[in-house]
Design brief:
The protein has 19 helices and no strands. The chain is mostly helical. It has three domains: 188 residues, Up-down Bundle (Growth Hormone, Chain: A); 56 residues; 232 residues, Growth Hormone, Chain: A, CATH 1.20.1250. InterPro entries: EmrB-like, MFS, MFS_dom, MFS_trans_sf.
């Protein structure tokens, strides 16, 4: 695989279009789940939640294998396959007569989406030299951030005025455009496709490991931590994951290369991304609960509340990328994480009287801070890797985001539920008005969870102090020596 002298902007534009529609669809159903329950006669909320959990599970299982596909097959073949699966899944979902068909269609969608993001990131890394990657990855961040933010807002509007099936009918023609462009216009980059053999046992352990952990933690908020299924799937997941990692370290051509953690800055970027993802999910999970359950705001207005924050992140992403090229990741990450810590603390001081505009302003400021951290830290870590390790680095980053997001969600929901229950019991004993017990106890649960999330953000802030700028004079050969355990100097 060799770097392109002139970036293939046409190829990148086609891949960007596919990535946008794939990420956009990931959050599209969040607001629509109640309407789907009524239409398909689903009694249990935990059942319909599988439309979101199942999508995340398929992503978590397939993303680790993306490194193999990217090294083995051409970017054109992978993209056409991915967009074909995604488009078919979208069509079947819109026509689904039963919940089972709808769930299967969502998983077909997810199978396509899981391959598109790592593919795009690898093309970006291969197409742009190190000194221009910040700006390029900033534009990549624009898609990654704006697409999932538009999903709930559009979904809220459509569900209020039309059937939930219209969501898929809107996505379908948009998905057909990049598929058609991929078939007729997309060319292969000068990747040297390697003759790799797929280690099937690694794929089994990877699926059981990441799938078990994702399912277990995702189910814990509904079933409880003492549930046999939750404990069983997490145990199976942990054991399988440990076995998977040990096996990868012994293979000459692993499914997922864990030896990339010999590069200190990549290891640090992964740690920061994990902690930041967990902290990020506090607002993504708790804000809809607060504004809809406690404040009584409609789903559409709830989505609109978060839209300015997403637009700010999208606007800042290319700017942050250019600043990264000029100043490096450390200054940006420290500044951004400081903003995240302060704004998260202020979220822990919410009350029943907090206004809609105050919440919107706080959320927007928090997203502004996150925009200064996410892509610069990730790009800084990937820049330390040799080119042949890019597929493994991007697969590792995407996998860890899925897993840490699921774990963070489950832990934060557990913290909120525990605090809410204990506060409700105390208020009941004190003879408080039963009408206000629910709102006040949930308010306390949300505030306490944001307070815990503040400390999680502080950990990420502390880690940003150790960021170093990779030496751009280091050659590919010197980078690859790390695999042989010979240290590389970093400036």
């Amino acid at each position: 695989m060799t770097e392109q002298k002139k970036p293939p902007y046409g190829i990148i534009a086609i891949l960007f279009t596919g990535a946008f529609v794939a990420i956009f669809t990931q959050t599209l159903l969040n607001v629509a789940l109640p309407a789907i329950m009524i239409d398909l006669n689903i009694k249990d909320a935990s059942t319909v939640q599988w439309l979101v959990t199942g999508y995340m599970l398929v992503n978590g299982i397939l993303i680790p294998a993306s490194a193999y596909f990217i090294q083995r097959y051409s970017n054109r073949s992978i993209f056409i396959l991915a967009m074909s699966l995604f488009t078919l899944g979208t069509l079947f979902a819109g026509l689904a007569p039963t919940f089972g068909v709808l769930l299967a269609a969502r998983m077909i969608q997810a199978a396509g989406a899981a391959l598109i993001m790592p593919l795009l990131m690898n093309v970006m890394l291969a197409a742009f030299p190190v000194e221009r990657r910040g700006a390029a990855m900033g534009v990549f961040g624009l898609v990654m951030i704006v697409a999932p933010a538009i999903g709930p807002t559009l979904s809220g509007y459509i569900v209020e005025h039309y059937s939930w099936r219209v969501l898929f009918y809107v996505v379908l023609p948009v998905a057909l455009i990049p598929l058609a462009l991929g078939i007729f216009k997309l060319k292969n980059l000068t990747f040297q496709n390697r003759e790799l053999s797929l280690d099937k046992l690694s794929l089994v352990f990877s699926s059981l490991g990441f799938g078990g952990i994702l399912y277990g933690f995702s189910s814990a908020g509904q079933r409880g931590w003492d549930d046999a299924i939750v404990l069983g799937t997490i145990t199976i997941g942990v054991v399988s994951l440990v076995t998977f990692i040990l096996r990868q370290l012994k293979l000459s051509e692993p499914l997922l290369e864990f030896r990339i953690y010999k590069y200190p800055m990549f290891a640090l970027s992964s740690a920061i991304s994990i902690v930041l993802s967990i902290s990020m999910f506090s607002a993504m999970i708790l804000m809809p609960i607060y504004v809809q359950t406690i404040k009584g705001i409609s789903p559409l207005d709830s989505g609109l509340l978060m839209l300015p924050g997403a637009l700010v992140m999208g606007f800042m992403s290319p700017i942050t990328g250019k600043l990264f090229d000029k100043y490096g990741a450390k200054v940006l990450a420290i500044t951004g994480m400081s903003i995240v810590v302060i704004s998260t603390y202020y979220f822990s001081q919410l009350s029943l009287e907090t206004t809609y505009l105050e919440i919107m302003f706080l959320y927007t400021i928090r997203m502004f801070g996150i925009s200064m951290v996410m892509m610069p830290v990730m790009t800084n870590g990937l820049n330390t890797l040799p080119m042949k390790a890019y597929p493994h680095g991007t697969a590792m980053n995407n996998t860890l985001q899925q897993v840490s997001g699921a774990i963070g969600s489950a832990l934060l929901i557990t913290v909120m539920n525990t605090r809410t229950t204990s506060t409700a019991e105390d208020l009941a004993k004190s003879g408080a008005d039963p009408v206000n017990i629910m709102k006040n106890s949930m308010m306390e649960g949300i505030n306490y969870t944001f307070f815990i999330s503040t400390f999680i953000a502080v950990v990420a802030l502390a880690l940003t102090l150790f960021i170093k700028k990779p030496n751009r004079q280091v050659t590919e050969e010197e980078k690859e020596r790390v695999y042989k355990q010979v240290p590389v100097k970093e400036s």
